[in-house]
Amino acid sequence: MAEQKQNEIVVDRGSSQFSDLWKKEDYWAIWLGFALLIIGMMIFFPRAPEGMQETFDKSNATIKAEAARAPFKTIAWYKATDAKKKPKASDSDIGKAIKKWTSKPHGWKSNPLDSFIMGKEQAEAKAAAAVPKYEKAKAVEGAALAQAQEAEAAAEAAGFQDASLNASAKASIDSWRAAHRKASDAKKKTKPGAYNQIPYLFGLMIALMIFFGIGKQVMTGDMAKFMGGFVFVFIVAVLAYVMEGQATMKEYGIGFAAWAIIFGLIISNTVGTPKWVMPAVQTEYYIKTGLVLLGAEILFGKILSIGVPGIFVAWVVTPVVLVGTFVFGQKVLKMESKTLNITISSDMSVCGVSAAIATAAACRAKKEELTLAVGLSLVFTAVMMVAMPAFIKAVDMPHVLGGAWMGGTIDATGAVAAAGAFLSEQALYVAATVKMIQNVLIGVIAFCVAVYWCARVDCVPGQQVQAMEIWYRFPKFVIGFIGASIIFSLMTQTMGSDVAYSVVDHGVLRGFTRILRGWFFCLAFTSIGLATNFRELAHYFKGGKPLILYVCGQSFNLALTLLMAYIMFYKVFPEITANI
What percentage of the chain reaches a pLDDT higher than 90? Predict the structure, then answer.
């Protein structure tokens, strides 16, 4: 009888596979994600910047000549590289319109209304007030450039044979680049922004409401209820972006993710989340769609650009830390919930929320467990993105090593980029690339967890696990994530890195899907907060085991990543490090 019942279950599952293509949110995440990517390609591919190829040819000739002339990246090399970055498809008229209709609320200092609406005179006054800071930053950049030119000239006069003069020139050029970044950032603030953001936010809300509502209608037939609740969820998400834009919050790195969860938790744990809002509280629906879009940003060419050292740091350390932390939680801490244990372990060791979502789906963790893992990740990310670059500077750690260390340990991709930029362009490049390599493991980890849970955790004694059971357990949206990565990697390789940078990276992605991905994540974090009650979480905090697990696991991660990065970048492959 048991065997017959099992066979009936398999038949039922098999017969539902076809309908799953339009009845399951994992598949809808794929359809919606790829729909946006296709729309982005239709918009930006025909709108390549005028004179783009001529700029690339001229800049590449300079870069090639400078690389042959000096053993370090010269001033002319950087200026040619900057010139290559100017042609962007997103600067087209339609690109600017898309940015206007999808942008988040503006930054503000003392009046939150400034993030939504500002009179023309006030906007122009705000821009004018930023001019002195820009002029000061520009003067600092000019002085740094003069010093860099002098140092480079001294190194050139010695035929680039004096190691100390070469090192001095490189350090001076790095200082100039840091000053250049600050001047560029200051310049952006001298341009008046949109005077009234409210109509654009309203239009975006309607568009996203319909976009996700279509999927809800096909899946559950409750599009009307979803749209009614979505207005509330969107407003809370907007408030989270508003708080992220506050000057002090921005300085301390407290982003929209933390605020979205905080606002959601306040509502759900005080007045309670209204029942009519709950149909739009769809954490996984939003974030899975965003993760499919994230896949298009992970390009294999960028992974290979940093070589074997980065792959070792990301693909060897990460599984070791994940397994080690999980075993520690089970054997030492004796955690009652294996699903909570593996979700925290994956969140902490791979790449934060994205990995937690995929892992939670693979092992079927409870939503409270996912919320707890995400909350721990956000707290530690905020601390580490400030503390790590400060520590690296204090101990005078090489920026390649520091970048690899941060890329392999700080959870969120955005936080990694911010921490790397705090040090130098070199640290930013290494940190972002290592994190990108690590992000590839999202799909691999989800598959491995699905296999392990089917074979060892949820298995029935004496019953053999069928391959199809793993397929049923595997989070299908990961297929979209991997597929987008493969397709856009091949596309970039075919186009060439320069054209892809202009049309794909700064067109389809940065000019369209990445902006929307940010909104999807914000909606997901808002939903996490609105769906979470502290009373439901209290059980999981018993004995403080989740916190202990995260602290111990992250400490192990920090130590092992630093050791691996040092060995790979400075002992085994120093020639790769020298060319970064």
Answer: 47
Note the pLDDT tens digit of each residue in 3-16. Answer: 444 444 444 454 45
Q: The tokens of 14 are what?
A: 């098999």
Q: Provide the angle, in degrees to the nearest 10, between the axes of the packed helices 545-566 and 307-315.
A: 160
- The count of residues in the chain is 580
**Helix locations, 395-476, DSSP H:** 399-409, 413-423, 425-439, 441-452, 467-473
Query: CA 60 from chain center: how many Å?
Result: 29
Q: Which DSSP string corresponds to 210-249?
A: HHHHHHHHHHHS-HHHHHHHHHHHHHHHHHHHHHHTBHHH
Mean model confidence pLDDT for the chain: 86
Q: What are phi and psi of 27, to 5 degrees?
A: -70, -35
Q: What residue ranges do the domains of the chain occupy? A: 239-578
C-alpha closest to that of 424 among 170, 189, 190 = 170
Q: Which residue has the tokens 């979502």?
A: 357
Which value, in Å, is the radius of gyration of the alpha carbons in the chain?
A: 25
Question: Is the torsion defined by CA of 229, 234, 235, 237 positive or negative?
Answer: positive
Cβ contact 369:340 at 8 Å = yes
For residue 246, report the phi and psi dihedrals to the nearest 5 degrees.
-65, 135
348, 325 Cβ separation under 8 angstroms: yes
pLDDT digits (tens, 9 = 90+) for 114-159: 888 877 777 777 778 888 998 999 999 999 999 999 999 999 999 9
